[in-house]
Amino acid sequence: MNATEPRRRWWPRSVRARAALAAAATAAAVLVGIGWWVHHEVYGQSKRIAEEQARKHLLALVDQLNEGAVPGRRSAVPYEVVATGRRTAVASGGGMDDFDPGARHVLPAPSALSAPPDDSADWSYTVRPLRIPVRHDYNPGSGVDMAGGTYPVMYIDIWAGELSSAKAAALGVTADATLRAYVVVLPDTAEAITRTTDGLLLRAGIVSLVLIAAAAYFTVRIALRPVEAIRVLTASVTASDPRERVTVPATGHEITALATTINSTLQRLDNAAAQQRRFVADAAHELRSPLTTLLASLEVALAYPERTDWPAVATTAARQTRRLQDLAEDLLLLARLDTRTPTAGPETVDLAALASRLTEQYPLTERPLTLSCDSTAPAHAHGNPAEYERLLRNLIDNAARHAAHRIQITVRNQGDRVVLTVHDDGPGVPAEDAERIFERFVRLDDARSRDQGGTGLGLAIARDLAHRHRGTLTLTPRTLGACFQLRLPRAPTPAKK
């Protein structure tokens, strides 16, 4: 076979066929178990019925012999009555008479008794397997061929001394003879009943398997119709246009949960696509603004080189280039944050010390501002020191653009949390915009933000970094200014080395 040719699988690919095959296999296993149990039960019951029938016939024979009556040949079960001192059988029937009646009796004669046996009660008998000999005088005709077979045989011994001389004479035995009544238990009836039952069970089982497989196939086919409809609809969904929605069945079963989940997924995909489109459009807009300014200043300078203030042009170009660089770095950072799973690193950072250091190092040269940090104790949290520094610096940058005179940083331990706040005395943020300011490229005052060099990504990056460290960043209501609150899981104080 060609190495590239796919292997043929005996297991069907269709869910309907697999369900039908699985149902049929399970039903087959159950039916085999039931059939085995029924087979043994029927065979056992049939054997017990045959034994009970033989026992009753044996007791009837004993009653007849005790009355001095010779049993007739017509019998439902094979029997033979033999006696000591007699070569031929006293009586036989039920198939044992197929042996020549004038020949020697088939079953062995009993031992001679001189007194009644201890177990001579009518309910006491002996059972043992005996082999029916093969003789030339045997002609079963249309009956059961017993010659050469070994069968369980019931027998009872009778002492003729208990009988009157007339009864013994009627039976053709001497007064001191011992008679033995044999009854052969044939399993043929039990086996025939069992074979018939097995045949019925086999046919019923085959029909049942076909019906079960068909029922499973069509049931699964009907059950999967909503799934096929969902598949057809979702196949038409594209990343650029994920507006299609699946019809949710009103039945409340698993398909409903599947349809609801797919609709939620499609909604998230739609939101992500819309957010991506907005992000690309906003990024293009933000990139276009400094590029336009840079290109315009350079084109004017090149058009009138003798009248151009080249230091001013270089200053403008440097400022716009820095804006482009900052924007590119922010976009790259957001892209990295979007592709990484939120998790806190193994390192432990003292946020109180970090806030104090940034307060001392932060440049406040453009306008007079007071930047202070208030912390009462070390505040440790797990995470990346560089990312924590970027988060806090973005909050300070945002506060510095909007503060009037003062920026206050506070760090506190509150139970199992570290709470860091950055509060400025600027104009504040309207309550309806408390969440919108964390969206990417959102500015509440575009003109002023661009003049001061903001990219509209600082708060979005800060919140993403907070979420990455399993924390939260929110805007808390204040009467004056804006107050950003960062809450992070508190880490144990590291041991001193």
TrEMBL record:
GO terms for cellular component: plasma membrane. Residues 221-274 form the HAMP domain. The chain crosses the membrane at residues 20-38. Its EC number is 2.7.13.3. It is found in: Cell membrane. Its main location: membrane. Residues 282-492 form the Histidine kinase domain. This is histidine kinase. It comes from Streptomyces shenzhenensis.
